[in-house]
Structure formats: C-alpha cells, structure tokens
From TrEMBL:
It comes from the Eukaryota. Residues 12-182, 185-328 form the FAS1 domain. InterPro entries: Adhesion/Biosynth-related, FAS1_dom_sf, FAS1_domain. This is FAS1 domain-containing protein. The lineage of its organism: Eukaryota, Fungi, Dikarya, Basidiomycota, Agaricomycotina. Keywords: Signal. One of its GO terms (biological process) is macroautophagy. Residues 1-20 form the signal peptide. One of its GO terms (cellular component) is fungal-type vacuole membrane. Gene3D superfamilies: FAS1 domain (2.30.180.10).
Length: 341
C-alpha cells in the first residue's frame, strides 16, 4: 500500500474554521521552528511518509488535546550517537514515544506538566506501539513514567536526568520542551544488565526452564516472550542476605523456579500507582502477592516472606520491573490458580 504524503494528509484534514489560521502539518512544522525546535521540526518532516509519522500528524491535526515532549536542538545533538544512523522508521518510533493524548500542561504552575503527588509516579500512555519495540498486554502502547520534585518533574528510565524546561501551546497541542531525547524502554535482559544493583540476581534468571513449546529455555527468554509482565527483582543486598537459601535452592530447580515464579505477575504490567495498601495479585505460580503501604514504605509479601519495594517502574518492552530488598523465598505453588491468573 502506498501511504499518503504529508501534503495530502494536511489537505484532507478537516479543520474548524473558527481558527484565524488553519492548522496543517506545515503549520505545525513552522510552529516548531518558531519555538526554536529546529531539529525536532526536521525529524518530524523526515518521518512524514512513514506509517507512524502519518498517524502522529493525524493525531496532532485531529483537534484533540495532544501533548508533545519536544527535545531541544541541543538534546538532538547529544543524541546524535543514538539517532545518527537510525532509519526513518526508527526515528518515527522515537518520536512516537514523545507524543501523548491529552493536555498534560499543569493548570496551576507555569512551565511544567501535570504530575501526581501521591503516588509520586505518573504513568502516561504514549503513541509508541510498534510491534518491534512494544509487546504489552492487549496490544497497549508503551508508557512514560515521571516523578515529581516540587514543581519540577524528572523522567525515570532515562540514563540522563531529563527535565521539562518550559511549556507552550500551539492550538490544541501542548509543547513541553525537554532537554533530552527520550529513550524507548528496552528488553528485560538489557534493563537488568545495565543496572549494577541487579548484577547478583542476573545469573539466576538464566536458570533453565521448560518453554511454552516444551523445549529447554533460560527463564529470562521465556519472560521476554510474555505480553505484559511484572517482575519484583531482588537487589544485590537481597541476594547476599538470601545467599544460603539460594545455594540450597540451586540444588532443586523445581523449587528455585517456584521461588522465582512468585516474583512474577504474568500477563499484566502493574505500575506503581496501582500498588496500593491491601492490594492483592496472583503470581505466575498461583500464589498470592499482597501489598502494604505504610509510613516506612511499600512492601510486597508472598507466603511468609516480605520485602520492601525500593525502586519502582523500570519499564521494559513487555512490562515493568520493581526492585525489592529481599528475596521472596516462597517455594509453594498452586497450579490451578497459576492457570487462572
Ligand atoms: C522554551 O525552550 C526553548 C528551547 O530551549 C526556547 O527556544 C524557547 O525560547 C523557550 N520558550 C519560552 C517561552 O521560554
Ligand atoms: C517529506 O520530507 C521530505 C524531507 O525529508 C521532503 O523532501 C518532502 O517534501 C516532504 N514531503 C511532504 C509532503 O511534506
Ligand atoms: C481544540 O479543542 C477544542 C475543544 O477542547 C475544540 O473546540 C477546537 O476545535 C480544537 N481546535 C482545533 C484547532 O482543532
Ligand atoms: C482539552 O483540554 C481542556 C483542558 O485543558 C479541556 O477543557 C478540553 O475539553 C479538552 N478538549 C478535548 C477535545 O478533549
Ligand atoms: C491546556 O492546559 C493549560 C493549563 O491548564 C491551558 O492553559 C491550555 O489552554 C490548555 N490547552 C488546551 C488546548 O485546552
Ligand atoms: C519523588 O521521587 C523522586 C525521585 O525518587 C524524589 O526525588 C522526590 O523527592 C519524590 N517526591 C515526593 C513528593 O515524594
Ligand atoms: C543507557 O545505559 C546503558 C548502560 O550504561 C546502555 O547500555 C544503553 O545503551 C544506554 N541507553 C541510552 C539510550 O543511551
Ligand atoms: C554465597 O556463599 C558462597 C559460599 O559461602 C560464596 O562463595 C558466595 O560468594 C556467596 N555469594 C554472595 C552473593 O554472597
Ligand atoms: C524440590 O522442591 C519441590 C518443590 O518445593 C519439592 O516438592 C521436592 O520434593 C524437592 N525435591 C528434592 C529432591 O528435595
Ligand atoms: C504466562 O501465561 C502464558 C499464557 O497463559 C503461559 O503460556 C506462560 O507459560 C506463562 N508464563 C509464566 C512465566 O508463567
Ligand atoms: C510497614 O509494613 C512493613 C511490612 O509489613 C513492616 O515491616 C513495618 O514495620 C511497617 N511500618 C510501620 C511504620 O508500620
Ligand atoms: C515459611 O514458610 C515455609 C513453607 O512455605 C516454611 O517451610 C518455613 O518454615 C516458614 N518460615 C517461617 C519463618 O515461618
């Protein structure tokens, strides 16, 4: 199928005549340039005939409220090593991760965006839904996550601190200028590997298990293949504390896989705002995971083991990881409930 070009798209867009100047794709590009966002304007122009680019422009011209996280020219320049050799389609995927439906401009404070105070993390669904980058449950598109410090916000899951510099409006489009090009969440293995606090548990995820086709596979590979997954990942301190137990479990793969399976929720990405006091979920081994939120922090319990969640919302292509400070040494499993989960 030949995709319509940007000019066709712009011509076809039905725009309300109440506006003094009608908005079309060229006007958006022009508005980006006027805001000093030349590299973003160039990137947006370069994707004008990709399928993703067309869907983004369609959303921008639809009259709905759309928020665009708009990286500065300096941000694009800093991302040169990442984007320099990228294909047009890859650039389109990166830009799609910067676009949200809705007006995220803060109604109370200038030059910042809406952010939740309690919980501290805001999760927002982007337009990134390319099958080579996102495998969430129900074909959902990828999310962005940010935390709040006073009136400022910081994106989590980014190697470099990323903040909103200012917020302007072009018709119904909110442009939130940011100082980095946001990175798309990677696979579970890459996220664990690049976090030095998770190096002790990493080899444990290599435990051989039976894959969906009955073949032998590393647990990590089975997990990568799930659509929608939540994993409570023990940090290095947790692994040191549980060393004796883990050495014992290493003698019995069945028990080890049960313990690991009780750190996992299969088929659902449970982001931290859904982890509330008294919440109960079912692990991939059919055991109950229950949650406590109190003055000390947020805790997860499986069987008689409890650990504190010390870092939340590490996003992956197919779900989310939360770091915990203990190993949930529950080797029980309930096949019936696991099947229903
Ligand atoms: C917002 O930030 C951009 C990029 O740094 C800058 O060019 C522009 O002048 C700023 N706009 C306002 C209103 O501060
Ligand atoms: C699409 O962008 C290219 C530059 O990347 C440009 O040459 C072409 O004219 C643009 N097409 C439309 C329809 O804007
Ligand atoms: C902007 O949104 C309002 C409703 O919130 C709508 O009436 C108006 O037509 C939209 N503007 C454009 C340019 O689509
Ligand atoms: C856009 O957001 C404003 C609030 O900022 C709201 O009043 C308006 O209804 C929204 N428009 C649409 C089309 O959702
Ligand atoms: C978006 O929200 C901001 C802050 O409430 C408001 O100033 C702006 O007009 C809104 N934009 C639209 C298109 O509703
Ligand atoms: C939210 O989390 C960030 C990062 O962990 C922290 O710096 C900030 O103080 C927290 N804000 C609130 C209101 O708890
Ligand atoms: C983030 O850092 C990790 C490890 O330090 C690296 O593998 C990865 O490529 C970096 N990602 C980006 C987007 O720079
Ligand atoms: C666990 O204990 C074994 C044997 O005492 C030791 O060799 C290993 O380094 C320990 N591992 C950790 C992570 O402490
Ligand atoms: C291994 O663990 C499983 C599950 O906890 C248990 O049923 C089994 O008896 C154990 N096998 C050995 C040899 O200890
Ligand atoms: C997750 O659920 C799917 C579908 O029910 C199943 O095939 C898979 O084995 C489960 N994975 C784990 C790790 O429990
Ligand atoms: C919060 O809950 C955890 C886990 O149940 C518990 O260890 C801790 O003492 C509790 N803290 C307070 C202040 O109640
Ligand atoms: C925790 O539960 C296991 C059975 O799942 C049991 O063997 C163990 O003794 C219990 N530990 C404590 C401290 O209650």
């Amino acid at each position: 199928m030949r995709l319509p070009t940007l000019s066709l798209l712009a011509g076809a867009a039905v725009l309300p005549l109440s506006l003094a100047q009608s908005l079309d794709a060229n006007a958006i590009i022009q508005a980006l340039r006027s805001a000093g966002l030349n590299s973003l304007a160039e990137a947006a122009t370069s994707i004008n005939s990709t399928e993703i680019g067309i869907s983004l422009f369609t959303a921008l011209l639809s009259g709905q409220n759309v928020t665009v996280f708009a990286p500065t020219d300096q941000a694009f320049s800093n991302a040169q090593s990442r984007l320099g050799g990228a294909s047009t389609n890859d650039v389109a995927e990166v830009l799609a991760y910067h676009v949200l439906l809705g007006n995220y401009s803060s109604p109370t404070t200038a030059n910042t965006i809406i952010s939740s105070t309690s919980p501290n993390v805001t999760i927002a669904r982007t337009f990134l839904n390319a099958s080579d980058e996102v495998r969430l449950e129900g074909n959902k598109s990828q999310v962005l996550a940010w935390t709040r410090q006073g009136d400022a916000v910081t994106f989590i899951n980014q190697n470099t601190t990323t903040t909103v510099q200012n917020v302007t409006h072009v018709s119904n489009i909110t442009l939130a200028v940011i100082d980095q090009v946001l990175a798309i969440p990677r696979d579970i293995h890459s996220v664990i590997e690049s976090n030095s606090n998770l190096s002790a548990i990493e080899p444990v995820f290599g435990t051989q298990t039976t894959g969906p086709n009955g073949d032998n596979q590393a647990l990590i590979d089975v997990l990568e293949d799930q659509r929608g997954i939540t994993i409570f990942v023990p940090n290095n301190d947790a692994v040191i504390q549980a060393n004796a137990t883990l050495l014992q479990l290493a003698q019995n793969t069945t028990a080890l896989l049960s313990v690991l399976g009780n750190h996992i929720i299969n088929g659902t990405s449970v982001y931290s705002p859904s982890i509330t006091d008294g919440a109960k979920l079912t692990s991939s081994r059919g055991e109950e995971l229950s949650f406590t939120v109190n003055a000390t922090g947020v805790f997860v319990t499986s069987g008689n083991a409890t650990a504190q969640i010390v870092q939340t919302d590490l996003l992956t292509e197919n779900g989310v990881l939360h770091i915990i400070n203990g190993v949930l040494t529950n080797a029980e499993s309930d096949e019936q409930k696991a099947g229903d989960a």
